[in-house]
Every structure is written in C-alpha cells, then in structure tokens.
C-alpha cells in the first residue's frame, strides 16, 4: 500500500474569462461577476472592442467604468479580478490569458439559444475550454445595457440598473 505524502500540493488556479462589451456595465453584469468568483479562482473580465455594436462608450471608457465599479464594490475586495480589453477572436483571448473557462450570463430563456450556439462553436474551436452559464438574480434578469442606454438617452432614471459611477458618466454622454 502506498503512503500518501504529507506535503500539500498546490492546486493550480482556475482562471475564467467573462467577456462582453459592457456598454455600459450594469448591476446584472456585477451580479454575474460575483457568482463567477464562486466558481473560478481568478476572473479576467474581457471588455470586447466591437465597433459593429456602435458602443456609446469607447473601449478605454468601458474598461475604466468596469475597473471603477470593481474597485468600489466591497464584495470584490481581496478577489483576483482583472479587466482587460480585447479585439480578437474570443478563443484566442481565452488562450492568451491562460483561462480554461468562459463565463456567460443568462437573463432569460431567449438568451439561451444564442449562447448555446456560441458555446458549441467555441467548443469546436477549442474543446479544452468549457463554457459555464450563470443566471442573474431575479431582480437583475430584465436589465440589459441596450435598455439602460435607451432610458438614459431619453432622460429616464437608470439608477436602479447601474452604479452611481455609470449614472454620472452616462449623464455626461447624454448632455445636450
């Protein structure tokens, strides 16, 4: 019978990537980040540079908004999180940062079909990378960046959907 070594072996950290345009970051996004940190040891928030989506905020502004919201959130203190912009194929970015998991947030059943197809395509590109779907809390399931931008553009109150930091920056964008 083999003897077990009394030395502790260090388990390698599991890195995940949470990709998105985050234009702007919402409370739903922050909820998914909190949930993802229960699954992975290190989370890379990949802020996608996708000009086809006609973002309100530049890539550098979106990175800064996310970094500020992460820094201001007490739930994230001491957690291993980094915010990184990217403009390449997601699977190449995931490999570049050494991640083994892609985190995707789901709000409603309607999100699932698209996300399921994307996960299948990503698996085809690299079968060693797993996609994990996390549901937002009920109170955040209806929030989307697109709706937040529309409400903000029309002068509505967005403070229930985003942080004060984002409210302030959106007001600057929509000043006429």
Verbal overview:
- The chain contains 6 helices and 5 strands; from the N terminus they run E-H-E-H-E-H-E-H-E-H-H.
- It is α/β, with parallel strands linked by helices and 176 residues long.
- The chain has a single domain (15-173), classed as Rossmann fold (3-Layer(aba) Sandwich), CATH 3.40.50.620.
- A 5-stranded parallel beta sheet has the order 3-2-1-4-5, with helices on both faces.
- Strand 2, helix 2 and strand 3 (80-86) form a beta-alpha-beta unit.
- The radius of gyration is 18 Å and the shape is globular.
- The model is unreliable at 1-5 (pLDDT under 50).
Q: Please tell me how large the radius of gyration is.
A: 18 Å
Number of helices: 6
Order of neighbouring strands in the sheet with most strands: 3-2-1-4-5
**CATH level 1 name:** Alpha Beta
CATH topology: Rossmann fold
* Outline: globular
Give the overall pLDDT as a whole number: 90
CATH superfamily: HUPs
Order of helices and strands: EHEHEHEHEHH
Can you give the helix content as a percent range? 25-40%
Largest sheet: 5 strands, parallel
Q: Using DSSP, what is the number of strands? A: 5
User: Which stretches are poorly predicted, pLDDT < 50 over at least 5 residues?
Assistant: 1-5
Strand portion: 15-25%
Assign the structural class, choosing from mainly alpha, mainly beta, alpha/beta, alpha+beta, or little secondary structure. alpha/beta
Could you give a short description of this structure?
The chain has helices at residues 27-36, 59-72, 90-96, 109-125, 145-153, 164-173; strands at 15-20, 42-48, 80-86, 101-106, 130-135.
